[in-house]
Amino acid sequence: MSQAESNGATGAQSGAPTSPDDRATTFQPVKGEAEHYSGEMLLVSAYAVLWVIILAWVALVWRKQAALAVRLGDLERVIGDAAKKRGS
Amino acid sequence: MASRPSLQDRAFYALATVTAVTFVVEILFIFLRTPVEARMGIVQKIFYFHVPSAYAMYLGATACLLGSVGYLARSSDASDALALAGAEVAVVFGSIVLTTGPLWGAKAWGTFWTWDPRLTTELLSVMIYVSYLVLRAFAGDGEGERRFAAALGILGASILPIIHFSVQKWGGQHPMVITGRGGGLQDPNMKIALSLGFLAFTLLAVVLLWARARLESVKSRLRRAEEDAIDLGLDTRAEA
After folding, report:
1. Burial of A39 (0-12, 13-18, 19+ CB in 10 A)
2. CB-based contact B229 A75, cutoff 8 Å
3. Hey, is the C-beta of B104 within 8 angstroms of any chain A C-beta?
4. A47, B83, B136, B203: most buried, per Cβ within 10 A?
5. Is residue B113 domain-resident?
6. Cβ contact (<8 Å) for A68 and B234?
7. Distance (Å, rounded) from C-alpha B218 to C-alpha B93?
């Protein structure tokens, strides 16, 4: 138990008011080994990222193509109307 | 009656089908036949698409370079379309590299990111292609903007050799698994998995480049047709 924890516990048990310093805790890094990550989770995340990026881009291209099809349809309609007017 | 697909369309769909099949084979091979690496464990399997993604990014960047040089030499829509498609493909695959690499690094190095020369130059390169796309999206589509973007495309490609040789030149933490002396893949199935990865990502890069360049080329032709229609007194926006 750390010094701060032992001070805090003693203070709480005795019922005496504790100062912020007494209640302070510390964040200490793990010593001796690196932080542990699950290999399976990282692998699944990497595969998910791969497909999300590719599919998002394909969806974007799909949308652009749909917008282009609308513009092409408009142009064809205008040209068709003009051709009818010229014919009549 | 619907028109029959052209030879080019059929070739495109055939290539897309082959690409999809290659990906399925690649994924099955990675998980069913390729052994788990002794020190890193299962996370090493990220390697089989992380490295091919980097290679596919190089393909996109090379297409952008060729298109940009072509556009500066002869201002054709096809060259500009190739440059834009190449830049988008470079960003897509570069983003995959920059996300899958740190996921591997979290396990192998104990950290997601470090300012290693290879990682830093890769990030710089992707940012150049992102700036290319931002320029194309927001600065208009005039001749001047296209030429400026072409210069940016050439600048982006100039970073590629720096990325590639950064490990040899400046060291850093990034591993060098594929070397001229046989490389570090100890099992034949590991080599097959990586080769399949290269094949799958090459095909995917070609399919994406083809689809995107065709779309951009059609867009340029359509814009010209709309301008011609307006010149002839047919206001497409008013009547649409």
Report:
1. buried
2. yes
3. yes
4. B83
5. yes
6. no
7. 24
| pTM for this prediction | 0.81
- Total domains in chain B come to 1
Q: Which two tokens stand for residue A79?
A: 């040209």
Q: Is B13 inside a domain boundary?
A: no
Which pLDDT tens digits describe chain B residue by residue (240 residues)?
456 778 888 899 999 999 999 999 999 999 999 888 888 888 889 999 999 999 999 999 999 999 999 999 988 888 999 999 999 999 999 999 999 999 999 888 888 888 988 999 999 999 999 999 999 999 877 888 999 999 999 999 999 999 888 877 887 778 876 766 655 677 889 989 999 999 999 999 999 999 998 888 888 888 888 888 888 777 665 444
Which structural domain, as residue segments, surrounds residue A3? 1-31
* A57 in Cβ contact with B88 (< 8 Å): yes
How many CB atoms sit inside 10 A of residue A36's CB? 10
**Interchain CB contacts (distance < 8 Å): A and B:** 86
Structural domain including B196 reads 25-173+188-239
- Do residues A44 and A79 share a domain? yes
Cβ-contact B19, B207 below 8 angstroms:
yes
ipTM for the complex shown = 0.80
Q: Are residues A47 and A83 in the same domain?
A: yes
Q: Which positions ≥6 away from B120 have C-beta within 8 Å?
A: none
Asked whether residue A27 falls in the same domain as residue A44, the answer is no
Q: Is residue B20 part of a domain?
A: no
Number of domains in chain A: 2
